[in-house]
């Protein structure tokens, strides 16, 4: 059976997934990597680190090293959409690197030199995650995720990102992970749980809800891989 790769940035996000692995075993590699089984699949879990460069490098490494059939990036995010509440899930239909700015050359904000702006997640995997989450009764929203190499903790800036990109949540890895996965032919779904409202109180709320959010995400992924 083909391997599934799970990605999380660090800490509680990765630990919650690792705790659910059957027969976990640490692997050698440039990141903390564990293998085991989850649901019906052999799984490799990569703790990629924070930021877009770390995300892109981890996805590329995992694709070459393990040749997985599918992948899931799991973690937390700040809300941009005012309708989102703490611990709601945001499932990416697509994602944008909102800090990319080559508008001086006639590009749109967030548009890459390759011409891509909103990078889609894999439709099949995304549909499966959505279906399972709804069956579990989880609060899940299909939308757009914005990524940048900074923790967004200023509400005015958050509102500007929402206005320009029509994004629903903000984080630091997902758009780069999806872009790399797409380039390398790796189907990937991107799933986030809301811990804060991307304002001045974001660091406190992030810490307060991180563990609960990570557990909710891990439970959903286990159910997806069991169905």
Layout of secondary structure:
Layout: E1 4-8, H1 11-18, E2 22-27, E3 33-38, E4 41-47, H2 52-66, E5 70-79, E6 89-97, E7 119-120, H3 123-135, E8 140-147, H4 155-165, E9 169-171, H5 174-183, E10 188-196, H6 202-226
Parallel strand pairs: 1-4, 1-5, 5-10, 6-8, 8-9
Antiparallel strand pairs: 2-3, 3-4, 5-9, 6-7, 6-10
Helix pairs in contact: 1-6, 2-5, 3-6
Would you kindly provide a written description of the structure presented here, covering whatever features stand out?
With 227 residues, the chain is an alpha/beta fold. It has one domain (4-226): Nucleoside phosphorylase domain (Rossmann fold, 3-Layer(aba) Sandwich), CATH 3.40.50. The protein is built from six helices and ten strands, in the order βαβββαβββαβαβαβα. A five-stranded mixed barrel has the order 5-9-8-6-10, surrounded by four helices. Helix 4 (155-165) links the parallel strand 8 and strand 9. Helix 1 runs parallel beside helix 6, helix 2 (52-66) packs parallel to helix 5 (174-183) and helix 3 crosses helix 6. The longest helix is centred in the last third of the chain and has 25 residues, at 202-226. The protein is globular and about 50 Å long. It starts with a strand and ends with a helix. The mean pLDDT is 93.
């Amino acid at each position: 059976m083909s391997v599934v790769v799970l990605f999380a940035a660090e800490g509680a996000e990765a630990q919650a997934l690792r705790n659910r692995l059957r027969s976990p075993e640490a692997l050698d590699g440039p990141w903390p990597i564990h293998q085991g089984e989850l649901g019906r699949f052999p799984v490799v879990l990569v703790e990629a680190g924070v930021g877009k460069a770390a995300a892109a490098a981890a996805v590329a490494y995992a694709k070459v090293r393990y040749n997985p059939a599918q992948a899931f990036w799991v973690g937390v995010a700040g809300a941009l959409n005012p309708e989102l509440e703490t611990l709601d899930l945001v499932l990416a239909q697509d994602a944008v690197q909102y800090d990319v700015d080559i508008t001086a050359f006639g590009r749109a904000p967030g548009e890459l030199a390759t011409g891509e702006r909103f990078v889609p997640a894999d439709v099949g995997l995304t549909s499966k995650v959505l279906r399972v989450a709804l069956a579990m009764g989880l609060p899940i929203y299909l939308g757009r995720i914005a990524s940048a190499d900074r923790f967004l903790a200023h509400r005015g800036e958050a509102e500007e990102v929402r206005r320009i990109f029509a994004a629903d949540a903000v984080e630091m890895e997902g758009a780069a992970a999806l872009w790399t996965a797409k380039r390398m032919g790796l189907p990937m779904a991107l799933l986030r749980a809301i811990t804060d409202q991307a304002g001045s109180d974001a660091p406190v709320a992030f810490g307060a809800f991180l563990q609960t959010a990570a557990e909710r995400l891990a439970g959903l992924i286990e159910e997806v891989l069991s169905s």
